[in-house]
Amino acid sequence: MTGQELAGYTSALLVGLVIGLAGGGGSILTVPIFVYVFRVPAVLATTYSLFVVGATSFIGSANHIWHKRINLPVAVAFALPSFLSVYVSRRFIVPAIPDPLLQIGSVYLAKSDAILYFFVIVMVLAARAMIRNDRPDRGEAADGRPRYGALARDGLAVGMLTGTIGAGGGFLIVPMLILLAGLPIQQAVATSVLIIAINSFVGFLGDIGHTAMNWNFLLPFTGLSIIGIFIGMALAHFVAPQRLKKGLGWFILAVATYMFIQEVSKL
């Protein structure tokens, strides 16, 4: 194993750590790790990301369910339309994207490059949310009555994002659950982990029939990520997660900058 691969496997711990602490965000790191450390093609990297994030979040959500931290009615209201858009985007839309996506004379934009550019945009938004701590304490559902229609609509949008780039969207889900369902932060984080788990597995199922999987690589990486989520959930009881999130936000911004430079250098 090379030093680069060792660093990649070690970073799997960070993926789980962030999901355990913040209810999302760690998934935004998996695609860059797969593409730039392990040299996995971009579209396949999004498939791998869905499996890793799904398995890691499922283990974390089982722990949250055991401790009764998850609001199941809110999770169902958000998740059902989200599952639908994840599966449709993964099964039909992503395979239907032409390659190259755009071609003008000798200049063209490959499908894989377009996905990575979109991913960079999402990473910058996620980093901004983490750095600024965009998590309201109250929202329009502060009266405790969830806005189920708005939750379903936003679930559709998050599902499309998950299906397209292979990220769980936790940095979007948690604020939505606070604003639209009136959940406390801790309950929103726990509910987000469950939604991410099922969203990611649904997206992965949309790929499994037409994608060759390297399980010898994927399972060890996932195992390390699962260890990371237990570390993250343990740290959440003793460490102020907001300070860690801000540092991780700057790290994600740095990774996004690196990705952008790498992609632009190909032009």
From TrEMBL:
It is a multi-pass membrane protein. Its main location: membrane. GO terms for cellular component: plasma membrane. It is found in: Cell membrane; Membrane. It comes from the Bacteria. InterPro entries: TM_pro_TauE-like, TSUP/Inactive_protease-like. Pfam families: TauE. The chain crosses the membrane at residues 12-36, 42-60, 72-94, 114-131, 155-179, 185-205, 217-238. Keywords: Cell membrane, Membrane, Transmembrane, Transmembrane helix. Belongs to the 4-toluene sulfonate uptake permease (TSUP) (TC 2.A.102) family. PANTHER family: MEMBRANE TRANSPORTER PROTEIN MJ0441-RELATED, MEMBRANE TRANSPORTER PROTEIN YJNA-RELATED. This is Probable membrane transporter protein.
